[in-house]
Design goal:
It is a single chain. About 15% of the residues are buried. This protein has one domain. It is globular, with a radius of gyration of 18 Å. It has about 150 residues and is of the alpha+beta class. About 35% of the residues lie in helices and about 20% in strands. A 4-stranded antiparallel β-sheet has the order 1-4-2-3, with helices on one face. InterPro entries: DUF6325 (IPR046288).
């Protein structure tokens, strides 16, 4: 692999996923593990937060086997330095009281071969945006309704 190829990355995103405290099943953690194991994404950072009913926020230990973040224990130590204290505070501010949230930074590694091919052809990304899933579902439902 050449130095140029090692510098190719897929898009890097962040996500903040909020869960009602009484609905924690570990299913989302398993799905995340499957994506990482399949090489679909590379996880750079994972922080799990809990916000109590009074608005107090705690960063949860992923290694606590009885804790609400236990499902994410596989990712204990996933810290690249991309997430800072300000990011965690901003995430906590977006959370509802009585919830648990997973804050992730991940690379879409599936896209790296496409990025490399585009660069070899002189392509440069000049715009990018994420379309919310709710907008996609509404558009598909509208198409179905008109058919």
């Amino acid at each position: 692999m050449t130095a140029t190829e090692t510098e190719i990355h897929g898009p890097v995103d962040f996500a903040l996923l909020e869960f009602p405290r009484d609905r924690l099943t570990g299913e989302a953690a398993q799905a995340l593990m499957d994506l990482v194991d399949a090489g679909t994404i590379r996880l750079y950072d994972l922080v799990v937060l809990a916000k109590d009913d009074d608005g107090g926020v705690e960063v949860l230990e992923l290694t606590d086997p009885a804790g609400p973040a236990a499902g994410f224990s596989y990712f204990a130590g996933a810290r690249s330095g991309l997430l800072g204290d300000d990011d965690v505070a901003e995430a906590a501010g977006a959370m509802d009281s009585g919830t648990v949230a997973a804050l992730l930074i991940y690379e879409n590694t599936w896209a790296a071969p496409f990025v490399a091919a585009a660069r070899r052809s002189g392509g440069e990304l000049i715009a990018s945006a994420r379309i919310p899933a709710t907008d996609v579902i509404a558009a598909v439902n509208a198409l179905d309704a008109s058919a």
